[in-house]
Amino acid sequence: MFAILFMEDMDPFYQNISSFPTVFFTFFLLVVLLYWIVAVLGLVDIDVLDFDIPEAEGVDINPDTGLSNANVLAGVMLRFGLQGVPLTIILSFVALFGWLICYYAVHFLLGMVPSGLFSILAGIPVFIGSLYVSVLMTALLIKPLRPLFKKTSQETVKRVLGQSALVRTSRVDNDFGEATLEDGGAGLLLKVRTIGDTTFSKGDRVVLLEYDKEKNTYRVISEEEFAGK
Length: 229
Known about the structure:
- By secondary structure, the protein is α+β, with helices and mostly antiparallel strands.
- It has two domains: 9-50 and 86-147, no CATH class; 161-226, CATH 2.40.50.140.
- 46% of the residues lie in helices and 14% in strands.
- The strands form two sheets. A five-stranded mixed beta barrel has the order 1-3-4-7-6. Strands 2-5 form a two-stranded antiparallel sheet.
- The model is unreliable at 1-5 and 54-68 (pLDDT under 50).
């Protein structure tokens, strides 16, 4: 199956994905794929890149207001409707759509442009246009998903406190960690943090003690400590 990747007929494909401007989206997409692989292995949090986006009509992104970079980014995301779902999912869709759009634009349009400086100059608007369209497509795609994430989050908090979960990451401490909770279905993946200097390792069983709404994490203790042993 993988032999097709090394056939001579694939040369135009490799040339397109490694040429300007597609190469930027190719790199972005590879980073996203690498991230998901590492996240599935439990080496990083699934939503390690997430930050809170204010629930507001909008955010003033004027640089003179002294807002932090995170607030400026939040304002831009609100303007384009990129909120309500994990940031990692948003970035994954932007990378995928941007790569597809840019690839076919380069394949069908830039092939008629002479190589060299003219090709680079023509590639700049293609890159900007691909990024813009991919953002709009992502915003449309995630719009119907927002209520699902919000409802799921609210229901989860109510019913998981006091239940036992299994640590899935290499460690759990004050700054890092995830655990899975069996719910009779596919299971729930939760961000967990310890109290004090306590640490847990992959495979340890912990009890969800309290929910930190601001950080969207659960404080956990060992089953033995919860049982008073």
